[in-house]
Every structure is written in C-alpha cells, then in structure tokens.
Amino acid sequence: HVIGLHNGQVAFDGPVGDYLGSRSHGVIELYLTGATHEAWLRAGGFRPGAGRGWARTVTHEEKIPLIRQLTAAYSDAVTARDFDTFASLWAPEGRWVVPGLVETVGGAAAATQLQALVEPNEFLMQLLHGGQVWVEGDTVRARWLLQELGRTAEGQGLHFAGVYQDELVRTEGGWRFAKRHFEFLYRALAD
C-alpha cells in the first residue's frame, strides 16, 4: 500500500519491485516492474491509467502535508536568505501583500523585495508556529501564525508577530503560493 507522498516521491509499506512514481495534477502514477500483483495495486486505490501504468487521485489528506512543507520551505528560505528557493515557491502570478510594502507579483519580484528587506540586517529568523489548511477540491486556503526575530547591522533588535492568509494553486512544479497576505499582530524594536 502507498503510505506516503512527498514532493512526488511515493513510499510503500510492502515489496513492489522496481518502480517509477510521479505526481502530476493531483494524480499519482506508477509504472511497475517485477512481481507486483494487480490485486495489491487495486487495494491501494490504483486503477489502470491512460498509459502503461496505474494511477489514483491524490486525496485531501495527502495535499495537506505538501502545503505544510511549502510553508516551511518559505520560512526556511527567508531565514537562510535563499532567494532562488524563495522565488520558486510562488505561482507565476503569485501576489505577496505586506502592509507598508509594494505588492509584488511573481516569484522574482517577491525575491527581489525580500532581498532588499533582509540584507541590511545582521540576521533575520522567521519562526513558523502553526496553522490551518482548508482543501476544497483544487482550491486551498491556509492561515499561518509566525514570528520574526532579527538584529540590524547597527545592533538594534527586531521582533514581529503576525498571520499569513494564503491562497494556493497547483502548478506543474507542485503547490505554489497564489497569494500571501501578511497581517501584523505585533511590531517592536527589541533590546
């Protein structure tokens, strides 16, 4: 049986021989070789696919960990100043909305704005606390609580807390942000 799906990789709890698994537009496709039985595949929810493989639709429960991973990758990219990864997390028309900043469209524009925000600081760490994900077919909304701690080059501490309201879309590369709207709950200079 399939027991997990992460970034296109399929994990199994039984012997399957050699396989190639892929995920595209909400469908898991398997091309199996070796001694795999049709009954085993059917028990796992797979049906003969359009080609030579077997396929099944990704469930809502399997989408949620992918959304959580995308959000964790976002916070990690902010902290690591990994602007290429940050740019890759956005849909082509993805909008980043933060009070007091120019709204960006697309990953490249968002990454350029992020770079301008974090580079003057000695460090900036984004801590993702928790959130909720709501899946309605191919529409996903999410809400995340986060905190940012940092220090400017001059030694001034920074402390922000807030909420991201997200809309997500599935692209050829997986789930991406269609819109991230940040709301400040707390902003302060720290010691």
Give a structural overview.
The chain is 24% helix and 52% strand. The N and C termini lie far apart (53 Å). The N terminus is likely disordered. The protein is an alpha+beta fold and 191 residues long.
How are the secondary structure elements laid out?
Blueprint: E1 2-6, E2 9-12, E3 19-24, E4 27-32, H1 38-43, E5 47-48, E6 54-57, H2 60-80, H3 83-88, E7 90-97, E8 104-105, H4 107-118, E9 121-136, E10 139-152, E11 157-171, E12 174-190
Parallel strand pairs: 7-12
Antiparallel strand pairs: 1-2, 3-4, 4-6, 5-6, 7-8, 9-10, 10-11, 11-12
Low-confidence blocks of residues: 1-25
Strand arrangement within the widest β-sheet reads 8-7-12-11-10-9
Rg for CA atoms:
20 Å
Major β-sheet profile = 6 strands, mixed
Q: What overall geometry do the principal axes of the alpha carbons give?
A: elongated
Beta-strand fraction estimate = over 45%
- Rounded to the nearest angstrom, the distance between the terminal CA atoms is 53 Å
The number of distinct helices, counting runs of at least 4 residues, comes to: 4
Residue-averaged pLDDT: 81
How many beta-strand runs?
12
* SSE-based structural type: alpha+beta
* N-to-C order of helices and strands: EEEEHEEHHEEHEEEE
